[in-house]
Design goal:
The longest helix is centred in the middle third of the chain and has 19 residues. By secondary structure, the chain is an alpha+beta fold. Helix 6 crosses helix 9. The chain is globular and about 50 Å long. About 40% of the residues lie in helices and about 15% in strands.
Length: about 240
């Protein structure tokens, strides 16, 4: 397939799909920065891309499915296995990712004791959390979230052996499969299955998948830069 076909597809999707534009803007801000100008840019972290499905390792949030442990919502097995940050134990990386989004000790303690009670995300509390802390979210979250995700993935690599071993079991590109989902950030963090000229591809930024490739290459040492005032429970971010 010609390079121009890939770029044309991406530009046409952005121009014709108002819902896609709105969704990407909620997570990435200026969506023009996501549009690649050449095929090799599609594999850069902050760019939309098309990835041949037969070279991908897609994963979804459903226990028992292939590569389930790649997902940030994946649960560590019961039986005493948890990840631990300070004295806070949890079984899903998504918990660590969202903690510093609320920029106050009080807010983070509320998350710990309510939304994240029982070492996992309590989906019933999500609406309450969004309403309660809308005015207390970090204003720079869009700018720092990718670097914070790097920190979180380094943390997961160090603390979850099954995830680490699974990541090194394949040389395929991990893809957070957002084909059957509808949350706004789905094609920022993940990608959806599409067909172009009879061949299947995953379309999206696939930020998590690209970071997992880098995590595998660096063996858990993704470089990141975070602001000095990013704290959890009133303390600076712990080194990994």
């Amino acid at each position: 397939m010609k390079t121009s076909t890939f770029i044309e597809y991406i530009n046409n999707r952005i121009e014709s799909d108002s819902k896609l534009r709105e969704d990407l803007a909620t997570t990435a801000g200026d969506i023009t920065t996501l549009i690649p100008q050449a095929e090799d840019e599609m594999f850069l972290l902050g760019k939309l891309g098309l990835y041949p499905a037969d070279t991908c390792a897609p994963f979804v949030t459903r226990q028992g499915t292939p590569f389930y442990e790649f997902d940030n919502m994946a649960m560590m097995p019961k039986g005493g296995k948890t990840m631990k940050y300070l004295d806070f134990e949890f079984r899903q990386l998504e918990i660590l990712f969202h903690l510093p989004r609320v920029n106050s000790i009080e807010g983070q303690n509320w998350l710990r004791n309510n939304l994240f009670q029982g070492c996992r995300v309590d989906a019933r509390k999500k609406t309450e959390y969004k309403a309660k802390f809308r005015e207390h979210l970090r204003p720079d979250w869009d700018e720092i979230q990718a670097d914070w995700m790097k920190y979180c993935l380094n943390f997961k690599y160090k603390n979850w052996a099954e995830f680490r071993n699974l990541l090194h079991s394949t040389d395929h590109t991990p893809v957070e499969d957002a084909t059957k989902t509808n949350y706004p950030s789905r094609l920022y963090w993940g990608a959806e299955l599409v067909e172009i000229e009879g061949k299947k591809y995953y379309f999206g930024c696939n930020i998590v998948g690209k970071l997992l490739v880098q995590l595998r290459t660096t063996q858990g040492k993704l470089p990141y830069t975070l602001p000095a005032d990013l704290h959890i429970f009133g303390q600076p971010i712990l080194p990994i």
